[in-house]
Task: structure prediction
Amino acid sequence: MSDTEQKLIMAVNRLADALERRGGRKTPLSFEDGRNAFVYEAEEDQMRAVAHVSAPDLALLKGIDRSKATLHENTRRFAAGLSANNALLWGARGMGKSTLIKAVHAAVAAEFGEKAPALIEIHREDIAALPGLLAKLRPLERLFIVYCDDLSFNNPDTDFKALKSVLEGGLEGRPDNVIFYATSNRRHLLPRAMMDQESAIGIHPNESMDETIALSDRFGLWLGFHPCDQAEYLDMIRGYMASFGMDGGDWQVDALEWSKTRGNRSGRTAWQFVVDLAGRQGKRVGF
Result:
């Protein structure tokens, strides 16, 4: 067989596999042994194991005590086989929404060991694939937290309906072995432009708002994140410095100046200042 013929056969096989995937062929998901965090690659319909999840200790997350305690307890209940809610973490940017999900998962994994749920991240542009993913997770014995960061709808007609049907809206409902966590800067998820468009074409002006709230209502937990004040901002930095054994001298003045140049005080700003300070001191920090 010539090289040209072999290449042709390989190309035909790849095309056949792609058509079967698009046609709905159900192939089992593969989870790498010993890993408890994965990224779902929708195009390949497979899991990519994450060797290391960048997550700080829960105690280092300041200024979000109520949300931290609520999400931690909800996740512990789920890991223990008890009822637990889907959660929407919404609010100010840089206040630790996605970091909290990763930190809570790490804490629960340390507590429950092999019985802890695996964390699966699905990209926001792949939300339309969420129903298919949950269908494959449903028969598995393992527990899963499916997580979407900065949830938005690139293709509203398909993405919005897919998520709405998954969050306890379909005939089968959410699988017992899966909970869904999402972060968003918006409490009601849809961008203003889309809401305005829906209002313009709806039979009744309130229809678009009702539809939007109907989606958010399917999350049992709404955890709000708000901008921190100066004391909380400095406390965040103080906690990081203590954790990494840093001595910044009169660091408060520099920290406040750092926040002014960025126009906000947040957990992200605090961490960026700590990284800069560590670099100036000849140190390297990270999780």
Notes: The radius of gyration is 22 Å. Residues 37-225 form a domain with the Rossmann fold fold (CATH 3.40.50.300).
